[in-house]
Specification:
The chain is of the alpha+beta class and about 90 residues long. It has four helices and four strands; from the N terminus they run E-H-E-H-E-E-H-H.
Length: about 90
Amino acid sequence: KPKLIIFDEPTSALDVSIQTQILDLLNLLQQKNNLTYIFISHDINVIKAVSDYIIVMKNGKIIEKGEKNKIIKNPKNQYTQKLLLSSL
């Protein structure tokens, strides 16, 4: 019964419908078992779906971090802004 699970690109090879089912299942398991996830992904839409707190990295360095809504609605860093625009 882990308390922390680290996922590295867990849905990157899945089509969108299966990806949604997996993310829904992970959210359900997280709530049911009081789990903490660290989700590593290049897909900003996946990050939006599973995160409460976001850390944006570029070239191995943290360039922005904060609560999901703060980062999504008001990104400060230009790289974060471009990532979010690419997901529209």
